[in-house]
Amino acid sequence: MADNDDRIARIARIWRGRTVPEKADAYAEYLLEVGVRPLAKKALGAQMFRENRETESEFVTISYWESVEAMSRFAGPDPRRIHHLERDAEFLIELPETVQVLQIVLDRSSGER
User: Fold this and answer.
1) How far apart are CA 22 and CA 55, in angstroms?
2) Quick check: 39 and 31 in contact, CB under 8 A?
3) pLDDT tens-digit profile of 28-85?
4) How far apart are the first and last CA of the chain?
5) 12: Cβ contacts below 8 Å, ≥ 6 apart
6) pTM value?
7) Contacts for 112 with CB less than 8 Å, ≥ 6 apart
């Protein structure tokens, strides 16, 4: 996931949020512009996923970091703490309370660790 440098992604930070189908397209645009694109400038990489279901759409963003310390420089001292976007309450069914932080054990794009 490194972006033309020698830093290796060792940590993934995963956020999930759900919205109703009527708001999903607008939220997708908002999340991409206000949340994911700025995040991608700070992280080694970022991805945004969407799953449309009958009664809701779920969004998942994953950002990649070389260390918890690097992630904390972006997220603050508690990297699991949520930084809600200004309009999240308008779009989301419920505001997530935490993010998931995982150690990357294997990344086939850059080899085994």
Assistant:
1) 10
2) no
3) 999 999 999 999 999 999 999 999 999 999 999 999 999 999 888 887 888 788 889 9
4) 14
5) 62, 63, 64, 65, 101, 102, 104
6) 0.86
7) 106
Quick count: other Cβ atoms within 10 Å of Cβ 87?
13
- 3-state DSSP assignment of residue 3: coil
Segments of the chain assigned E as strands: 11-19, 45-52, 57-65, 100-103, 106-107, 111-112
**Which residues lie below 8 Å from residue 113, measured CB to CB, with a gap of 6+?**
10, 104, 105, 106, 107
CB 41 within 8 A of CB 11: no
